[in-house]
Amino acid sequence: MSDAPPIDAAPIDEALGGLSELAACDLRLAKRFCARIEACGDEDDGKAMDLARSYQRMARSYRQTLVVQARLRRELKAEAKADEVEAKAARQARTYNLKAAIRAEIRPRIWTMEREEERCDALDSLLDDLIGDAAARLDFLDRAPEAHVAAILADLDLDADAQDDEAAAQTPDDDEVEDEDEVPDATDPPGTTRAAAPPADDHASAGDAETASPDPDPPPRPPDPPPEPYIPPWERLRPGQTFPGGSGW
After folding, report:
1. Which of 58, 215, 222, 234 would disulfide-bridge 30, Cβ 3.0–4.6 Å?
2. How many helices (H) and strands (E) are present in the chain, helices listed first?
3. pLDDT tens across 103-160, in order?
4. What is the dihedral of CA 216, 217, 219, 223, to 10 degrees?
């Protein structure tokens, strides 16, 4: 058994080089047999026939070697093309996923309640353009998603908007300040607020603050008297009185 490795296990360059050398040997032997056939005389017909059969074998081997060499090159070319297509598809998938990740990270920062809808539409359209420009660069897949997000946020000026929104959120409104000043009393019914307490006097002593008592509640208001019953005027006449302008009733 031959110790030579199979063709598919040998390096591609060595396989092609070996086929080229084999084809050269077959061609050289075929030419040699052809020259010996031409040198034979008319009386050497038997020898010429043997040389012709050897020539045919070398010529057939040469053609087969060329066919194998051409087929190997076609297979290598097809395999390289398939690898290129697969690599291109994988790159497109990675590019699509990275663009989607960047868009999903930035879009919620654009569409906020504090920003007008027209401004959001303009920023959203600009976001697609910036992502497309970034994807067209050769180092798009080499950079981390966080780097792309930071660069696009800077181009959109969303960092400044975020700082303004944060400052506005930290600044209390006037209504909130008034609500904080109005402290509800535990005895008040729900939904009622007590007026803000007056500021403490800086000159008042701690003892006065401890001995001071709240003002007493006013006495309860007496109930209103019930209305008097209706009495006709003729029934209000005392004995001896007459109803004026009447018949005496």
Report:
1. 58
2. 7, 0
3. 999 999 888 867 888 888 899 899 999 999 999 999 999 999 999 999 999 998 876 5
4. 180
16 and 72 in contact (C-beta within 8 Å)?
yes
Domain range annotation of the chain: 12-170
Quickly list H helices, 10-44.
12-39
Token digits of residue 114: 């504090």
Contact 100, 92 (CB under 8 A): no
State the Cα–Cα distance between residues 170 and 159, nearest whole angstrom: 17
Diameter over CA atoms, the chain: 193
Give the SS3 label for residue 87: helix
Is the separation of the CB atoms in 152 and 134 below 8 Å? yes
DSSP 8: T
Residue 208 neighbours by CB distance under 10 Å = 10
Q: Which residue has the tokens 């509800």?
A: 184
Distance CA 249, CA 244 (A): 9
Distance in angstroms (rounded) separating the CA atoms of residues 68 and 81: 20
Dihedral, 235, 241, 242, 243 alpha carbons, nearest 10 = -50
Residue the block writes with tokens 């209504």: 175
Report the chain's C-alpha Rg in angstroms.
55
